[in-house]
Design goal:
Ca3427-like_PBP2; alpha/beta; D-Maltodextrin-Binding Protein, domain 2; CYFA0S02e06788g1_1; single chain; five-stranded mixed β-sheet; 299 residues
Length: 299
């Protein structure tokens, strides 16, 4: 079976690349087309909805939010990364801001509404005790480059005051003085999940299960070949060798035997409870729980 799989082309994608290059998909009868989505999880969700993708691997908060708000085109079928994500808060290099606490009432750039960069802005506001409305708007900027240009008030993009993106992906732009670090925030939940179109989950569950098994094998290979992983990241994903080595010390992928499982407490309930508290979700808890019961499945 052929599957179109969307992923974010960052260091976290390394086990996916290993699953492809080492033949873990093909050994299970799968032909997998890996499609990079540098614009992130919001775009992945959009592509699941318009049937451009069969499977998407992205940020927990974005996909849980989508299901909780009533999206039925995809289901959450597995856990990919169980360690939290470190979101860096950045502004323009010459901007006046020096601390994330100064962002109340400011404009926060996001890749898309519903993306991780959007959801985590609310979590940041909640943790820092900002008063509602937390911010003065969310310029939608699509790409990481546009986000960086936006906080530097470059022509051709809407201006913003700060944005949030994964720390090690952003670090090289601190090093070259393009943007400025003003803080960070960690997700209160495991950071990456695996999602599949509802039609496939209902009619091709064996193939989806085989895909998850191949990802498990990719994780096993990553964990036992860390030097090869650093080399791959350095040569293919625009990170320095030093940063790749430092990142590997911080990440914990899901135990390979548990990729097919979703911990209801840490992945689902903790995520939607924080999103409700932050004001990202405004339907009743009963409605949200009902949607998630249908939208989170174990194969």
């Amino acid at each position: 079976m052929s599957l179109k799989v969307g992923y974010v082309p960052e260091h976290f994608s390394t086990p996916i690349a290993f699953a492809q290059s080492k033949g873990f998909f093909t050994s299970r009868g799968l032909t997998v087309e890996l499609i990079p989505y540098p614009s992130g999880s919001g775009h992945l969700i959009q592509s699941l909805e318009d049937n451009s993708l069969d499977i998407a691997i992205g940020l927990t908060e974005a996909f849980v939010r989508g299901i909780a708000q009533g999206k039925e085109n995809y289901k959450l079928v597995g856990t990919y990364v169980k360690s939290p994500l470190r979101w860096a808060v950045s502004t323009g290099f010459n901007r006046e801001f020096t601390d994330k606490a100064e962002l109340a009432g400011k404009k926060i750039g996001v890749s898309r509404i519903g993306s991780g960069s959007y959801v985590m802005a609310y979590v940041l506001a909640l943790q820092l005790g900002f008063k509602k409305p937390f911010f003065d708007g969310f310029p939608i900027l699509s790409t990481f480059k546009n986000l960086r240009d936006s906080v530097n008030h470059k022509e051709g993009v809407e201006a913003s005051d700060a944005f949030m993106w994964e720390y090690f992906t952003t670090k090289r732009y601190y090093d070259n003085k393009e943007v400025k670090y003003i803080g960070d925030i960690y997700t209160p939940w495991p950071s990456w999940v695996i999602n599949a179109r509802t039609e496939l989950v209902e009619n091709k569950s064996k193939q989806i299960s085989n895909f998850l098994a191949a990802i498990s094998e990719g994780i096993e290979y990553f964990n036992s070949h860390k030097e090869e992983a650093v080399e791959y990241i350095f040569n293919n994903l625009d990170y320095s060798e030093e940063d790749a080595k430092e990142w590997i010390k911080t990440v914990e992928f899901q135990d390979s035997a548990l990729v097919k499982s979703i911990d209801q407490d840490t992945v689902v309930e903790k995520t939607y409870n924080v999103l409700i508290e932050a004001g990202v979700l405004d339907d009743s808890r009963d409605t949200i729980k009902s949607r998630l019961e249908k939208g989170v499945v174990s194969l």
